């Protein structure tokens, strides 16, 4: 059915070549999921950890933190699934989407 909104975007698989093309496609995918800012800037560490340590964190703080970390895990999963098995070990220890993204950028970006 043309125009139906249920189609899933396939992520391109990065195998070590044509990084810039892969990066452009991935940015578009992240933007379509509302995740690009999170990948680009990273998970924001709010005052909630300090508040938790002080015992003054609210349930809302906890919920926001959980949601943001879930979104980051989704973005990290997208990146992990968008690299070949040969590239994956380079990002296997990345804890956040930004960390994985920056590792790939640092290794494969050709420079400005």
Q: Mind explaining what this structure looks like?
A:
- The chain is mainly alpha-helical and 112 residues long.
- The chain has one domain.
- Helices cover 59% and strands 0% of the residues.
- The chain contains six helices and no strands.
Outline the secondary-structure elements.
Layout: H1 19-32, H2 36-41, H3 48-54, H4 59-81, H5 88-91, H6 97-108
Task: Describe the structure concisely for a colleague.
This is DUF4219 domain-containing protein. The chain is mainly α and 112 residues long.
Form type: elongated
Secondary-structure-based class equals mainly alpha
Low-confidence stretches: none
Radius of gyration over all CA atoms, rounded? 17 Å
Protein name: DUF4219 domain-containing protein
Pfam families: Retrotran_gag_2 (PF14223)
Describe this protein with a few key phrases:
DUF4219 domain-containing protein, mainly alpha, 6 helices
């Amino acid at each position: 059915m043309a125009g139906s909104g249920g189609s899933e975007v396939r992520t391109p698989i990065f195998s070590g070549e044509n990084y810039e093309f892969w990066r452009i496609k991935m940015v578009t995918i992240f933007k379509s999921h509302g995740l690009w800012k999170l990948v680009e800037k990273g998970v924001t560490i709010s005052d909630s950890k300090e508040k938790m340590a002080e015992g003054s964190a609210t349930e809302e703080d906890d919920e926001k933190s959980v949601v943001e970390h879930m979104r980051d895990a989704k973005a990290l999963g997208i990146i992990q699934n968008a690299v070949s098995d040969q590239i994956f070990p380079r990002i296997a220890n990345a804890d956040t989407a930004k960390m994985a993204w920056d590792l790939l950028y640092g290794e494969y970006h050709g420079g400005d």
